[in-house]
Structures are given as structure tokens and as C-alpha cells.
């Protein structure tokens, strides 16, 4: 199946495969031979070997992106505030938590917790019976 082979090239290397690449390249195997043996592209093998020679490790890199401004405890306090009072504003939550963060950060944290904003009703919605009575 040629489609399955093409998709395999784009999957992440497992830790075991990374170790095999390092071992084979240390045993002076060619990049092409290693790639054929593991059913991977030569580029993947070359990149793994270059990382090993450059950094001395074959572990995947983690931790990309901006650092978080709040701790886990502060995140839980933000969530708790919205659970206690669903109509509380972002500025009130920020004052209660006591952290210098922008309101967008609070909205993002609530979105990550799968909490939506709730606003109080200005008026109760009319039921079909109320509409009928109102028309009469």
C-alpha cells in the first residue's frame, strides 16, 4: 500500500527508533541504509543523527511557546471564581486572584477550562403562552 508508506514518513519517531538510528549510524551504516532498514526518509535519519552529534541527545524538544504568567493554583482560583458566580467580570476575577494579568488571559484560561461567559438576563424570555396572551 503506497498510501500507508507515505503516511508513515510523517509520523513521529518513537524513542526506540531514535536509539536504533543512533546505534546504526555509530556502527558506520550509511544514512540511506538506515532509512531503508527503518522505513523512514533519509531526511529524518539525517536530522536525528545531526541532533545527536550536535547536542549529544536524541530526545524530542519540548516547551515551545510563551511561558505562562499564572501558576496552576492561580488558574484554579480563576476557574473557581467563575464557578461561584457565573456573572462575575474579568476585572473582578483579576482583583480577587491578585495577579497582574490582562483580561484576555483570564478569558483564555476560562476557555481552556471549557467555561463560557454568562450574562444576566435583562428580561425573562417569553414562553409561547406568554406570547399568545400578549398578542390577545
UniProtKB/TrEMBL annotation:
A single MF term (Gene Ontology): DNA binding
Q: Name one GO biological process term.
A: DNA integration
Location of region: Disordered: 60-87
Locations of Basic and acidic residues compositional bias?
A: 71-83
Tell me where in this chain the Transposase Tc1-like domain is found: 75-136
This protein's name: Transposable element Tc1 transposase
Which InterPro entries does this UniProt record tie to the protein?
A: Transposase_Tc1-like
Domain of life, per the record?
A: Eukaryota
Amino acid at each position: 500500500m503506497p498510501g500507508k508508506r507515505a503516511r508513515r514518513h510523517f509520523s513521529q519517531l518513537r524513542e526506540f527508533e531514535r536509539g536504533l538510528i543512533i546505534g546504526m549510524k555509530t556502527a558506520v551504516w550509511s544514512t540511506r541504509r538506515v532509512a531503508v532498514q527503518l522505513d523512514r526518509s533519509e531526511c529524518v535519519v539525517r536530522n536525528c543523527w545531526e541532533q545527536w552529534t550536535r547536542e549529544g541527545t536524541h530526545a524530542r524538544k519540548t516547551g515551545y511557546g510563551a511561558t505562562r504568567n499564572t501558576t496552576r493554583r492561580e488558574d484554579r482560583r480563576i476557574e473557581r471564581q467563575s464557578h461561584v458566580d457565573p456573572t462575575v467580570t474579568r476585572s473582578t476575577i483579576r482583583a480577587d486572584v491578585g495577579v497582574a494579568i490582562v483580561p484576555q488571559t483570564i478569558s483564555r484560561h476560562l476557555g481552556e477550562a471549557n467555561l463560557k461567559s454568562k450574562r444576566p438576563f435583562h428580561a425573562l424570555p417569553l414562553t409561547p403562552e406568554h406570547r399568545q396572551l400578549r398578542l390577545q
